[in-house]
Amino acid sequence: MTTPRQTLRRLLSSGELIIAPGVFDGLSAHLTKRTGHRAAYMTGAGVAASGFGLPDIGLVTQTEMVERARMLVEALGDVPLIADADTGYGAALNVARTVRLFDRAGVAAIQLEDQVFPKKCGHLPDKQVVDTAVFEQTLAAALDARSDDDLLIVARTDARAPLGLDAAIERANRYAAAGADVIFVEAPQGTEEIERIAREVEAPLLINLVLGGLTPLESAERLQQLGYAIAIHPGNVLARATFAMVEGLCELRGTNAAEFAPTGPAGFFDLVGLAEWATLDAKIAGKE
Q: MF terms per GO, please (predicted)?
């Protein structure tokens, strides 16, 4: 009997682009399966917003994310789940526990990133990254903690924004050399950057296509030509569901839904309190 992990491994080795819609609750997971998708992506941003009413700025905890992953795995059945595990929620020792928990939850792949904790959505400003060597320790801990080699480790670098594309590509290749199964360079800006990453990173590649984000929404055909392995669409379903809810609520009040429609990630997170959390963060920083 083929497991979802083995299925994802087989899909990855086939050379055909894997399209993974973002799932965040039981309904989105069931619909992803019933509409015939071959893989799904547990979006941390979607879980934070839909499950906890929070923006994607590192407020959701390890155990909250693991429990959501467990439920999504059950709903998806034989459809493999790629799970967003943020930074691993601490130092290398914490990462080992994180991987063990997600492993037992049944995910097919675990995504870890090199941001400083608390992390931010990859398409928000003012991100910071840890030293490359620190994240290599994260990867070593993750690879050692998994129960079997069929569980994929996805290494994400957010270095493009704070350090530039050259640094992001250098990190990507170092993470691949450290043993990551899939490499994810977050938020390339423009088609030329997408193409350069495909040329210069020697590993299976994941690309993140965010509605209203920094990365152009390239077609599946073009990404296949460039050699990308996985395309995640974390906000496609959530954005449509959100606007439908806004329309329904505004219809009941006789107001204009367009007034509440976000135009990008920051606007979406403002619907769940990003501005208020930013104000609180500034207040705390001022006191410190």
A: oxo-acid-lyase activity
